[in-house]
Fold these 4 entries.
Entry 1:
Amino acid sequence: MPNSTDSSAPPDRKGLSSGALLIAGLVIVLLILHQDNWLWHNDTLLFGFMPIGLAWHAGISIAASFTWFLATRVAWPLDEEEPQR
Amino acid sequence: MMIAEMQNGVPQFIIILVYLSLLLALGLFSSRLFKGTKEDYQVASHSIGPFLLLMSMFGTTMTAFALVGSSGEAFREGIGVYGMLASSSGIIHSLCFFLIGVKVWRFARAHNYTTQIEFFRDRLNNNLVGWLLFPILVGMIIPYLLVGVISAGGVVQALTAGLAPDMFPVKLEGGPGGIDPAVHGGIPAWLGSLTICTVVLVYVFFGGMRGTTWANTFQTLVFMVLGVVTFFVIANKLGKQDGFFENLRVLGESIPEEGKTRVEMSKTKFFTYLMIPLSVGMFPHLFQHWMTAKKASTFKLSVVCHPLFIMIVWVPCVLVGVWATGELMPAKPPLPRLPGGDIVDANKVLPFLVKTQTAPILGGFLAAGILAAIMSSLDSQFLCIGTMFNNDVVNHTFGADRFTDKQQVLFTRLFIVAIVAITYLLSLGNVRSVFALGVWCFSGFSSLFPLVVAALYWRGLTASGAIAGILAAITSWSYLFYQGTLDPQGLSKYVLRLPIGGESYEVMPVVAMVFSTLIAMVVVSLVTPKPPQETLAKFFPDQA
């Protein structure tokens, strides 16, 4: 069983790293792009079948996945793989 | 005609039965690996790897709300529903896994927590927080369970329509022959819901968290694959052209203006919908899934793939929903109506299309896929409420050593049965919109989001501040819900109107709830005594 002493939880990396700042910036950009007022009344069908508003937001999903992939590479919050036992 | 109808319903019925039997077998098999301990029953002995965690967390968050609700809401509101909940969830859910999930996993493994309430009680050094949170969390899980239970009954009824018209007739004034052909002769919703609840209960009973995780993984694979197959089949059937892309093209062109744009959607309402997915940070059942992770790095696959998986499930559902509003949608048989009126029952749009646009055997498999999505959420929710009762009420009151592990597993199971019974009885009422029910439920969890963030990242949070925040959350939720019931447009359309510069802007009620919690929590924390130094040192070792 894990112990329960005060020091048992592994420490975080101190402060915000440049990686964490990059991810924070990308998330803010994603949230801004999410509010796509410029496509609100646009009824274009992308590739002839996909309403452009839906295609844009599918693109946001792909971009979010890429951002979180980057996060796991440059801003993962834990140093340790497992807590002390 | 009657014979043909009966034959039509039989394959779906048999396939659903076989699928449910497979799930029961999986639950019973996983029970053979059950170690008999409380820890194994509740968190699978913290042994779950990246793939199983991804599939079980995704299956848990994608419920009837995602399949049945998304296609139904796209039918009503158009493609904007994807941005309102799917792409926003891709950003926010993974953010919650990343900022909250990994951090609480670290504390939970170090200090042996299984439930949120154990974490909050320890972090705030206060018991009252737990006694306040328990009824609130259970009370908000019940409507979430209702979403699944109601949808399950509706899906089973729509997809087995024609099975036994004499036994299960559904009359409809003005319908062809005085019946509602969309559901006539199908297994009644009350019986379908009861069967689904029973099956999930059995495999949760025997398999615990391990069985739930395996069943979730299996069911997530089933509903993702069959969801894509459904999309192809319905597209080809509705489009009636030679090639798949040609079908997509004609179907795209058939969507009315309001379906393929957001001309009727408020921009501020769309923006404030961003707060709904914050609910994931406070879902107790997701918290329990986080605890099953073997290592911190186990979370990485979920963080990355969750937005893509949402897209794979939601884009086809939204397209199918808006296609159903177009001119290529056959007029006969008519879409199912809500009882006593001429309004289309949007909850039944997807199962109706599966039933009428696919061959019976494929329709049966697709029915299993929809049920898979529903059950993969119900199981985790069932397990978590039982776990909370045992850990946060029984153990907390009588002491963790008062009862054996076997007795504690029994308490967990008994409470699950009680809550499922209550939920089932509530499901027999007339709930019109799965989507509205889901949104109000998620809003409640979102309103508590500031609490978990402050507990993890703010040393200044005090027990009094947390209690004030919780009270503000539940008070604002109750008040706004009451106002919603008084609104002529009903709960599903209820919004706040913010007057700025002579204009009125629509805002989702969740915004008021989140800010009520935040303000109450921060203000009271600033004027009340700080937590003991040893508590702060335990949770903020770097800043001690």
Entry 2:
Amino acid sequence: MIGEEFANILARAQRGDEAAFASLWLDVNPALVKYLRVVAREVDEEDIAAETWVTVVKGLARFRGDEMAWRAWVFTTARRRGIDEGRRRTRRRAALESHVAELAAPGRLVPPDPALVVLERMDTQAALALVAQLSPLQAEVIALRVIAGLDVEAVARLVGRTPGAVRVAAHRGLRRLAQILARQGVTL
Amino acid sequence: MANFLRSLSGGRPFQGDEHLEDLLSGQPLPENADAELHGVNELLTALRSAPADPVERPGQARALDAYRETFATSDPAHQRRRRPAMIGTLIGAKLGAALAAGAVGFGGIAVAAAAGVLPDAAQNLAHTTFNAPAAGSHGKSADHIKTADTTKATPVGPDATAEGHAAFGLCTAWTHAKDSGKAAEKSIAFRNLATAAGSQDGIAAYCLTVAKPSVDGTESDTAGKPDTAGKSGVTPGKPDTAGKSNVVPGTPPVKP
């Protein structure tokens, strides 16, 4: 996140300063693409991210809010875009599970323990694939909190749940992730 | 560990519960936290790290195109106001780089020649030696730059190529020097770069829009406004860090 400079950079971007807008894009887009990979696997997340920015740019001059509100707005726009693309979670989950299975395939990874190797190779893609094994709500809530950096209240507004429900979903998701790692025999 | 594993199966609170919010908000885990939580923490850290995914560059170009369409082209007066100043400051920065930033010798002359600001005799020598603009081509060069910028074409020729190399080179030098603090503050070239960027603090963001010129000059930045933002290695924010903002939450966004 940008932090203290955000208000200044946003104001410049709203006045037509392209470099300032590039800073905003550079700060948010990597997280945006990762979020879309979790919630909209079967569609082209790069494409949705780009369409999201087109929409954001159109409303940029009228946006008012701090950095948390800014991120919440961008991710809300992306979420709507993803839904508009008609994504289906069952297909997404199937694709992600297939991806995880491929990552953990005995012939693919270095023995002895595929799961251990998955953890050792815990790059962003593997981590995204593991999160996608969670329920859709748990996966999205964790993605929004961890990847997008949104607080509980912002996530609750975004997904249309209460803050309490968001906390419960996130905690259960983390427990589930710990369970997955433990069941796969991972020790640290 | 036993408590932790029992809690997983029963869904009851377990010892690590108190640390879950820390995990979610990117706070460091205490060393005495359950080992399993450290595993989850590693996973979340991987989630936060930026993907090494070059395919996002086209997305950046699309976003910038949309931005230009919405802001730049809808305010041509803004373009007219800004362009001459930026071109002038860039040329000044290039000359400063040649004269004051230790760019003595062929390299410094090359920068000045590329900008087309050497005396005519020297400029013509540079023109025949390494394809710098010919003497007396300043006005033509400026016109070319202006036209190329507003039409978003990919200019070909020594003028635009030199412009891209100079701006990119200054940004690259600044990236390497900024950590020391002294160079960025004292160098005339870097002060000019700050002028081109609008302010000292604006250099990083400005350099984000300066594309790395191609070797053959078929794709270059003309006046710090590339079709695709260049790789500068300067990241004002932390794209891969999803930590909590220290900005106090304020008014909810107005839905555009």
Entry 3:
Amino acid sequence: MRVALFVPCYIDQFYPQVAIASLELLEKLGCEVSVPKNQTCCGQPMANSGFAHITSGCDTNFSANFSGYDYIVGPSGSCVLHLKEHHPDAKIRASVFEICEFLVDVLKVKSLPSYFPHKIGLHQSCHGQRGLRISSMTELNEKPFSKLTYLLDLVKGCEWKYPERQDECCGFGGTFCVTEEAVSVKMGQDRIQEHQANEVEFIVGADTSCLMHMEGILKRSASNVGVKHIVEILNAHA
Amino acid sequence: MLNHAEASEKFITNQERTDWHDDTLWFVRSKRDKASKLLPEWEALREQASQIKEHMLSNLPQYLLEFEAKAQANGIQVHWAKDAHEHNEIVYSIIQKHGDKALVKSKSMLTEECHLNAYLEQKGIDVVDTDLGERIVQFRKEVPSHIVLPAIHLKKEDVGETFHQHLGTPKGNKDPQFLTEAARIHLREKFLGAKVAITGVNFAVAETGEFVVCTNEGNADMGAHLSDVHIACMGIEKIIPKRQDLGVFLRLLARSATGQLITTYSSHFAKPRAGQEMHIVLVDNGRSRQLARDEFRNSLKCIRCAACFNTCPVYRRSGGHSYHQPVAGPIGSILAPNFDKKANVDLPFASTLCGSCSNVCPVKINIHEQLWFWRQDLMKEGLAPAGKVLGMKLMAWMMSNPSVFRLAGGIGRKVMSWFPFLVNNGMNPWFKQREMPAPPKQSFQEWYKSNRS
């Protein structure tokens, strides 16, 4: 199984530990992982700002880097959703997976050698949840499920909690976080407050962008709650 | 006029009130969740409603003509208005014919859209909104901030003060029961005096020529039954093919709106009673233009339940007035650009695209996708500020050239470590209330190069 690791641009630059954990985790699970060297960005920041008509350079670069693999796997529901919905190449659209859904649906992971003895708050990032259906949604009348909690339950020592509003948006929203700064921050503060009420040590999710936003707010208030991408937990060991 | 971001920033200044607004509407959303989960067939009902509307939109001309013929056969006078102005003129001409100077009006988002009140007031007509929430905002010379809960931006203290000023209730009295009673006495007088009543229309049945008006207060009925002339105003998309379709829509409407099983009053108006005149004004006002746009036609399925308002994390924290449109919230943001792209260019961006709106929509409008499509449409039309266009083009160029991306990333991280004040300053909206991420020494690609290859 030839897997290409898709590392979203801002993870490459600011959160290399998330990409490293993704790489190690996939390798641990027996995948032959390549890291295309000239990858940059999926084009989402432009497209969600109304500029999908100027992302063809990004699309071409993505195709040049990622064609010919069985699977393209990335640790970001949002970027993966963008590719699935908007990349012009149908083969890319069909082979790109968010890493948790890849673990559950393709690798069919039944156990993990992971150990993370901490209490965490689970943040369900909207694009992964509502876009990729990584978990059920509270708005719908459907049977509850979650690929994230399924995986977290395989981690020894890890105790997870949902915030009171289980799947409300954190307010990151791409360029929304700066163009609508006031609402964005208020949404983030409200999410954090609910996690803090649960006395968690980390806020954990499958989208680093949401975590970056909440981390920024947490740090400003000198909170001792940290953020972690879920792969950092799935890859953690004693 | 403030744009959405500016108006929201102002709204949020009062944290306590923002939290109250957020919690109150979240409570309504929670009631909606409970009610919808009591019906095992909920998702199937939504799908059916969406399909009925789909069918209606595809056959709108036939259903409109069928409705007109049946309504006329029932003795209802049918009028057609191509836009807001024509609608207002038609309504005024009917009032004028009867020589009346005052009228009562129950809730109608269409008349808000057409700015009927302002138009009639200019002509010297006293319009009394009879929905309690609408009457409150009317006293205050405001507009509704929510299509189902028009005064949800106000607290009982505000209402007490407003009634003290306009109805002479004792200063400082904020008891909801007392204030409601005061409004009831005040409105009763207006009902008894009015010869003309205007109502909205929730559903118009093509098969029978009847229309259905849903309220919780019974104010539409009170107005219509006491008046000599009943004028019902409706957008052309309110048509449904058959009476039996109401079995789908009435079950969805109140559950989605407030979590009630059904609205307190779901009144069918089929023909004028003896001696009464009944009029229907069918209004296009941009709807056929929207119908012709593939990406946006489904917005016409809306039954105005406001479930998308209540679930929207942005709406709950910014208030309806920040949308500067009669219909606020996510649905308003996809309807508004159809009226005026330039004036409403901010609205499709007043969203994180979280998708919750589409999930609660009882007629399954893909609201968050349409927000995305409007963004493309508006930016392609050149409605972006020059700085944004330049920034986007620069970013697209950088991301198309891996060596530029690597170089810029490396420089960017070094600048952030060495000269943090260049990033961490008042010019950077991120930094206002958030710290920047700490720049790592190596990017992932740099780590990979030194550790793996």
Entry 4:
Amino acid sequence: MRKGWMVLAVLVCLLAGGCWDRQELDELALAFAAGLDYDMEQKQVKLITQVIRPGQMKSAESGGGSTGQGGQKASFILESQGKTVFEAVRKASFQISRRVNWTHNMVIIFGKGAVKAGVDKFLDFFVRDPEPRPHQHILVADGRMEEIFKFRPNLEKASAQTLEGMMKNAVMTSEIYPVTLQEFVNDLMSYSKAATAPVVAVIGEGKDQKLQLVGTAVFKREKCVGKIDPKETRGMLWVIGKVKSGIFSVPSKDYGEVGIEIIQASSKIQPKLDGKELTVRVDVKAICNIGEQQGGEDVSKPEKLFRFQKKLESEIKKEIEKAIKRSREMKADIFGIGEAFHRKYPKQWKSLEPEWEQHFPKVKFSLNVKAKLELIGESLRPLHAY
Amino acid sequence: MIRYLAKLFNALAKRQRSPVKQSSVTKLDSGLTHNLKHIMDELGNGSDVVNRQFLIGRSAPVLAGVIFIDGLVDQEMINDNILQPLLRIELERPVDLDVLEKSFLAVGGLKRVETMETLVEGVLTGDTALLIDGQPSALLLSTKKWEQRGISEPDTEVIVKGARDGFTETLRTNTALLRRRIEHPALRFDTMKIGKKTRTEICVAYIQGVAEDKLVEEVKKRLRRIDTAGILSTESIDQFIDDAPFSPFATVGYTERPDVCAAKLMEGRVAIIVDGTPVVHTVPFLFWESFQSPDDYNFRLFYANTMRWIRYLAFFTSVLLPGVYVALSSYHQELIPTNLLISMAAATEGTPFPAVVEALGMGVVFEILREAGIRLPRPVGQAVSIVGALVIGEATVTAGLVGAPVVIVVALTAIASFLVPSQVESAAFLRVVFTCLAGVFGALGIINGLIFVYIHLASLRSFGVPFLAPVAPIVPADLKDVAVRVPIWMMWTRPKSIDSPDRIRQAMRIRPEVPEEGHDDDRS
């Protein structure tokens, strides 16, 4: 009998303790994008939240983009302010009937003010709170941030989805590196490596508006020190081995251009410390295919193929050199060279670390690019007649 | 007060246990009329009791009488094989039972009885009693025959490839079906009668030398313990001999198929056949047997194993799906893929109840419909399914009472549970438990519930064999029929978990092979 009472007692404890964090689906407001900005004068964090309306998201009516039944838009914007991000987040929920849920947030976008004020203090909330995912993407807004949030995409229902898709498609060109919250925060916390984030802008007016990734912002610690363009970004990605795919155009001898597709690429960074001299040997290997041939050169002939291969190698080298030049100008170690030194020379690194900013521009790079053209596609002879 | 009740209950139980003297034996009298009257009184002068008196012999006629129960006997046989020969006897001296026992009666089964009790019992099972004036004993002639259902395919265990016969309500037919499949003399049918009033014949079937003697003894011991007025179905036998009466999982298996039953006997199990029901029970019953279908052994290897895995999946679905749905939708939205979440959120927009209430409510609605579908006469049953599918399924969603996902989840769960027929009952119970746990604690509740269920399963035993064997405890030799069913020719030992004294089932190297070159030269 005692057993029965015990079971009852345990049951009461359990049932009384349950349910406390229950949240039905129709009590949630799903946030898809967060925009962070900072008002220097009032010292206020400004938060823009893109919240979706699930019913409108699902409506079949997609003409015009984002209005569903009853003319309601599939997403709307909440603007809130607070001394901290957390306060602004809570105030966002305060404006609507449901609680804003961050578990499916896709992108965090920094506005001009936030970039100026230093981005690190805005990110702690997103790392500390259990709701936001570590794999959402970090972006920097070029121009007015509200425009990005109010942008009406053609395919998707909310601009956050478009940005998320663009991040996935970044591998097509490798001219943008879609950095995740986790990676970004790791780079921010690193003493030597500079963090980077893609820059997004709304281009055009009215109906012709489109979202575009215009480059990459480079952060030294929390401060933005400059911007590099897409080609320079790929130069950087070659070195850190993050090039997944992409297209090169190499001029054909007689006429037109040859389009070359990167299939696979890898890199190896070997630092060398020789007295006071810092050198880095970078080996880049790229496997490419020929995707298009406008001219009349017969790429099925090995000697022609080798010529393009040589050309390709020098093109890649040029891209990398450009990126190195920019990084020296900014004194920002976007390649993570410092970390490579740290790994190889942990003892000497202790003396290098405090002045890495001074050391980095003096690091000598020796580039070693090996490109290999493998497949030439399904047509053997060039289309262009002599 | 609870202690007082317990005391009272114990006292009652003690009084129950004290033996009651009852087995009084009445010897048969030598006077025929007296005997007949006594028997008729014993049977309460029932309208189905037939009592016929006649004279045997021309020169020295003796009064004789037969008694039988109409409907339990073969009337034609009584007329042709008993009454006719007896009425034509032309002996000089008066006949007695010793003569009749040896000659005249063209009946297969014949037994001399001395006491009133055995006589009445025999008559009640369909025998015909033959009594002769002046003799204190009688003959019981086996004339059993009654209306019975033909052998048909069991509705509950339909298979695609394989035998189409099923057990019937008659014990003799059932034992015959097993004898037809196992023609070895070692097949034993040990019979006993249970139930003071119903006197149900119960048959313990096993193969001597294949089934462990200790197991057979244990089964008989448990059956003998049953001291009740009546056994009307095997199900009640099952509950009397169960290892864990309060478990949602049955530790006694059942089948309506003689081929399945024979296969289990061949593995060293024991079957319990009860007269009056087509359901035969087999022990020991292990958890994994629930997922084995006769079709598994009839179909090609890969298909059979795929179907077995589908069955495992279906069982987990039927137990966990509503719980997982509730946990995800009301606690762990981050685990749902974004697009699915949008769809779910859009579908549940504006529904008045939380997900737990929706899931439990729709579950109850389904059970009501299912029960109604079984009980109602077939033509009406159709109407019920239309009402169920259209009105309740469709209208509740359109009216915004429940979300469409819940209807999908409940429907899928309900259908999935029927893939594993022997676990339908446990799945239905556990489903409700897991849904409630998920509603209160989310995934935490489901995980803890699963741990409890696993512990419980691991603690169960069926007639001394761990319920989860051969997986826990692990018996490598027996894993040949759990996760995958290996080819039949590889199953060369009997299950070790059942501990048959005769371990070897078949020769080891009987894998089918292409004959070597030169063997098939008779082609030319």
